[in-house]
Amino acid sequence: MGMIAAGTLGSAEFRADYRVKYAYLAGAMYKGIASKELVTAMGKAGLMAFLGTGGLSPEEIESSIRFIQSELAPGQPYGMNLLSDLARPEQELRTVQIYLEYGIRHVEAAAYMRITPALVRYRLKGIAVDADGIVRAPNHVLAKVSRPEVAALFMQPAPDNIVRELAASGLLDAEEARLADRVPMADDICVEADSGGHTDQGVAYVLMPAMLALRDEMAAKHRYSSKIRMGAAGGIGTPHAAAAAFMLGADFILTGSINQCTCEAGTSESVKELLQHIDVQDTAYAPAGDMFELGAKIQVVRRGLFFPSRANKLHELYMRHGSLEEIDPKTRQQIQEKYFRRSFDQVWDETRRHYARLDPEQFEAMARNPKRKMAMIFKWYFAHSTRLALQGEEDQLTDYQIHCGPALGAFNQWVKGTAIERWQNRHVADIAERIMQGTAQWLNQRFGALAGADLHQPSK
Ligand SMILES: Cc1cc2nc3c(=O)[nH]c(=O)nc-3n(C[C@H](O)[C@H](O)[C@H](O)COP(=O)(O)O)c2cc1C
Predict the structure, then answer these.
(1) Which residues line the pocket of ligand 1, CB cutoff 6 A?
(2) Residue 241 belongs to domain spanning
(3) How many domains does the chain have?
(4) Which atom of ligand 1 is nearest to 406's Cα?
(5) This model's pTM is above 0.90
(6) Which of 176, 130, 131 is nearest to 157 (CA)?
(7) CB 403 within 8 A of CB 197
(8) Do residue 232 and residue 299 come from a single domain?
């Protein structure tokens, strides 16, 4: 018997603040892949998951919140994703408005490159000095970041100019604005190494020590009353990886890819079937549809699929040409027949209808620029391929866009030959339990071995 138990891993303060059994979180997955059912299953087990609000309408977000709040007892943990969208800041403000109305206490903030008014409003709403004279912000922000310069923004108080603006427009009251500089923007920073979905392809071994040093530096400078905790995400699909994260100094861990291949995940059975069989080398990088022009990358399933190579091809064509007309006829034909299975004109029509609802003015401006028009037509493929996967359109399976990192391949190997080899037997909370129990065992065994005791324990 070792000293380490699943319930002692990570930060005790984290477990208390989040009211969770383990220092383990399930990260958001867009379009409700991290579904309301996934969030409530975790909450009922005393664990927190974040609803995948990206790509959901405000109405869908609200109805999911109502579902979660009616399923969970008061005090059972749950949270929501909050995504930065610099192109449409009003969307983010609207989401925050909903979170404030429904009393959402935990957000996983991601995709931020700078601090936004919406995020500041969420963070500072309700901040007050308690009976012991300690400044407390009721709304917890966990910032998921992959770069030190972004981490630094979240380790500092809200920018002055944003606080002043919000106070002037009545979105924060005078007391909330006054206390702004007493807390950092985030209570917790989750350092994301190479992961499923959007990725900066970071390496945990490198990032964690640098981020911990940055945290200590910022803490010394600002003298906050509580410590900013540091977590780790990206590549965690086995006890071995989780153990490494805790050894690197993580106060908590966060998983993503492994939760997409469970009963609770909001995606098609045909995607789950594919996911169940992937190995550690079956993923690839592709351009991100939502940041296509910027060349941002996502990690997706490669095994048996054309999506990654087709998506990369579209990006390459976009980079090399000023308009669709500049692309050679043979390639143009191939894209329309093989990739899109419809003509550019049909795609353009769909795109126009989509934007007519969202932002007709912006659409007209983009339509006049041939390069931007090409980007819009190519970006249709990204929305389309996501839809195919989520709906399980098996006759177009090779075009599925499935965000996923190699952590799932490692997980699949780890559970081979056990009851949860089949995805139909995989449940998010059970996976969390197995990983955390396995991590404690693995660490005890490793510590024993490193200290010179040969315990002859199996590695599973
Ligand atoms: C299918 C899928 C969709 C994701 N969508 C989002 C998202 O909408 N918002 C977000 O913050 N992170 C998203 N992520 C990232 C996860 O929350 C998590 O940070 C990441 O998956 C952890 O790395 P791992 O995949 O190696 O476990 C997504 C990941 C996957 C696999």
Answers:
(1) 27-30, 33, 52, 54, 81, 108, 110, 144, 192, 195-197, 233-236, 254-257, 260, 403-405, 407
(2) 6-267
(3) 2
(4) 26
(5) yes
(6) 176
(7) yes
(8) no
